[in-house]
Amino acid sequence: MTKIVLENITKKFSGYTALDNINLKIRDKEFMALLGPSGSGKSTLLYTIAGIYKPTSGKIYFDDIDVTELPPKDRNIGLVFQNWALYPHMKVFNNIAFPLELRKYPKQEIEKKVKEIAKMLQIDHLLNRYPHQLSGGQQQRVAIARALVKEPNVLLLDEPLSNLDALLKIEVRAELKRLQKELGITTVYVTHDQAEALAMADRIAIIRKGKILQIGSPYEVYYKPKYKFVGKFLGNPP
Ligand code: ADP
Ligand code: MG
């Protein structure tokens, strides 16, 4: 089943075309990586899926429903950004609880859900700390927990591991992947890191200059690149 459809999406910033007629179908429970060099339009595409940006033209569907005009809060998505921006004055517990408090969940339910998701991400021993008392990897797990606690249908991540050192990257990468499969959550993952995309994704969309050049499994894009650029970019030049 198809979860998200992007139909002829174009996004212009005062005349500059950041996304050029993008067509993309993301399957239910799929882990889709958006991979491309810096400035290729990955974040713009992710924020357009999130509803943070409105496309200049084109349509977006979630579960066959036209959401093009829906604001982010009505799209049932979890978002994790590159700079994970936890609330510095709130303890980890309250950071994770925040989306539920906004939605006026009962206190007991909030506590239950926060503890559940914290346990899954192995940060349940950190709930009483403040963000500045955590390592980078721990902070990023808190951001992921905060995005997941309201049980969204779709998880959108923008280079979530780029600020972590190499070892932590591998650790959080594996954990994120496990969680994604366990929860069966449709995930769109923006990265410029080829190895990350190849290791994590079910399918990869290769983006360059606002256009999707190729969509395929890691195997397909690596071994059967449709363009010289794709082969080169993935480190398997012709
Ligand atoms: P990526 O995430 O792949 O690095 P972006 O989606 O951030 O790329 O940017 C794609 C292009 O659109 C870049 O040339 C960038 O300068 C431009 N762009 C992105 N956001 C804006 C904005 N808010 N206003 C003007 N130009 C933007
Ligand atoms: Mg970006």
UniProtKB/TrEMBL annotation:
Keywords: ATP-binding, Nucleotide-binding, Transport. GO terms for molecular function: ABC-type transporter activity; ATP binding; ATP hydrolysis activity. Its main location: membrane. The keyword Transport applies. Coiled coil: none annotated. Residues 4-234 form the ABC transporter domain. It is a peripheral membrane protein. GO terms for cellular component: ATP-binding cassette (ABC) transporter complex, substrate-binding subunit-containing. One of its GO terms (biological process) is carbohydrate transport. This is ABC transporter related protein. It comes from Methanocaldococcus infernus (strain DSM 11812 / JCM 15783 / ME).
